[in-house]
Specification:
cell cycle; cell division; G2/mitotic-specific cyclin-B3; mainly alpha; Cyclin
């Protein structure tokens, strides 16, 4: 008690700025030891913030107080003070919270909550109470000689009635030799699932496309079918209803001009086609829920492309780039405010199934040529400007675009396509008539971007391929001749 009193007096003198020259080296060592512990345990006592303690400035503070010796410095650097006093820390809940982050870099204890790699903390299949954790820790320490550190911690922490339950929450891998996760049980379960998993059966004439891609990890052949099955379920969440009756300042032609301009932006910035399709979907969803003035339509379109680019591009264009293509008609603040509104409208949910992704999947499974796929892309991209088609499911309109492209090249709808698209040809006939009419009509001067784009050699000049003729009863002429 007297020793502690003298130390406190010496510490008080040091805090007041007095010199330590009158003290013996042993006394200085004892004071340094005590002072270092108090810095670590109670930094607020010396007006030391937690960020200063965690940033390693403890040594600098102690040196400024002129009480630091090389041995103490070595101890603090190696984290030995933290380890030696750790048993006290786990009995003090507030202190453990204060020091937990600082201990990670110094070899101290880490607070872990339900780490499955720690057998004293985790139970399989149910959550364990604090009493169960304490009991299990004590049983493990008695039954295993290799887990002696756990036993010591259990015995010492049990002496403290106020925090014995919390001590089980501060256990590190250093204290448990057998801290490696035992995967034998999980491995057996995985093997059982593989054995019991039913081998998919395919109808006659249908190729198991994913089985042929097992050597290509980029095709994720084990999950591709389930992924697009999930897309089929998810696309129903993002169905768009016709909204022009709520938009008093907007018409079908105005929407078509906006989409045409967005295609031009996609070409100018050389963005992915997925970015364009997502942007158009974002525009429709936003217009379905919010009234937009005619003067703000271009702002909505530019912001939608910006958000879609950040979702799908490796290097999306900057805000200033979009302000420039809008001829500085809007301010930066307006653009960012519109971005927030757009994201709130979709509840920050940008994982929307797109018709373009379905089309690529269908074409790959049927091993369609690149020219045929490009023709289907031209048909599908033209459909983006058609307001009457916004209610059609993305998977269905993608299948219809591919079917029309096949018919324009005198090819048939195969069992493989019917299996992977889940649409029969008869379900798509009415839709392909509509799509054929879209590419048959000569676009106005404000809607030339898509046709000019797909009239280029790089796109196989597919826009120049003549569409099918439609009979008087509204059916495709080739279908009637049969």
């Amino acid at each position: 008690m007297a020793r502690r009193h003298s130390q406190n007096q010496a510490i008080a003198e040091i805090n007041r700025g007095k010199s330590c020259r009158g003290l013996s080296s042993q006394k200085i060592s004892e004071i340094a030891d005590f002072f270092a512990e108090r810095i670590i345990h109670n930094p607020e006592e010396f007006n030391i913030k937690n960020d200063i303690l965690t940033s390693g400035k403890t040594l600098q503070i102690a040196r400024n107080k002129r009480i630091m010796e090389p041995t103490i410095t070595t101890k603090l650097r190696s984290g030995r003070y933290l380890q030696e006093t750790n048993e006290k820390l786990i009995c003090n809940k507030d202190a453990s919270k204060r020091v937990a982050d600082a201990l990670l870099e110094n070899g101290g204890k880490k607070r872990i909550l339900g780490d499955i790699t720690n057998r004293t903390l985790a139970t399989r299949g149910k959550s364990a109470s604090k009493k169960d954790l304490k009991l299990k820790a004590s049983q493990t320490s008695v039954g295993s000689e290799t887990e002696q550190p756990v036993k010591e911690i259990s015995l010492k922490s049990s002496k403290s009635s106020s925090s014995s339950e919390d001590s089980a929450m501060y256990v590190t891998a250093l204290e448990i030799n057998d801290s490696v996760m035992d995967i034998s049980i999980i491995k057996e379960e995985i093997e059982d699932i593989d054995k019991n998993q039913a081998v998919p059966t395919f109808p006659e004439g249908v190729e198991d496309f994913d089985a042929t891609c097992k050597e290509d990890p980029n095709s994720v052949p084990n999950y591709a079918f389930d992924i697009f099955k999930y897309y089929r379920e998810r696309e129903k969440v993002f169905t768009v209803k016709k909204y022009l009756d709520k938009q008093k300042e907007m018409t079908k032609s105005m929407r078509a001009i906006l989409v045409d301009w967005m295609v031009e932006v996609q070409e100018s910035f050389e963005l992915n086609h997925e970015t364009l399709y997502l942007a158009v979907k974002l525009v429709d969803i936003h217009l379905m829920h919010n009234f937009v003035a005619k003067s703000k339509l271009q702002l909505i379109g530019a912001t939608a492309v910006f958000v879609a680019a950040k979702f799908d591009e490796r290097m999306p264009p900057l805000v200033d780039d979009f302000l420039y293509i809008c001829d500085d008609s809007y301010t930066r603040a307006e653009f960012l405010e519109t971005e927030i509104k757009l994201l709130k409208t979709v509840n920050f949910n940008l994982g929307i199934p797109l018709s373009y992704r379905f089309l690529r999947r269908y074409a790959r499974c049927a091993r369609i040529s690149m020219e045929m796929l490009t023709l289907a892309r031209f048909i599908l991209e033209t459909a983006l400007m058609d307001y009457e088609l916004i209610e059609v499911l993305d998977s269905k309109i993608a299948a219809a675009a591919l079917l029309l492209a096949l018919k324009m090249k005198d090819m048939k709808w195969t069992p493989t396509l019917e299996y992977y698209t889940e649409y029969k040809e008869s379900e798509l006939l009415e839709l392909i008539v509509h799509l054929n009419n879209n590419i048959s009509v000569t676009p106005t001067k404000h809607l030339q971007t898509i046709r000019v784009k797909y009239s280029h050699d790089i796109f196989f000049n597919v826009a120049l391929i003549p569409p099918l003729k439609i009979s008087k009863n509204g059916q495709l002429e080739r279908e009637v001749s049969k």
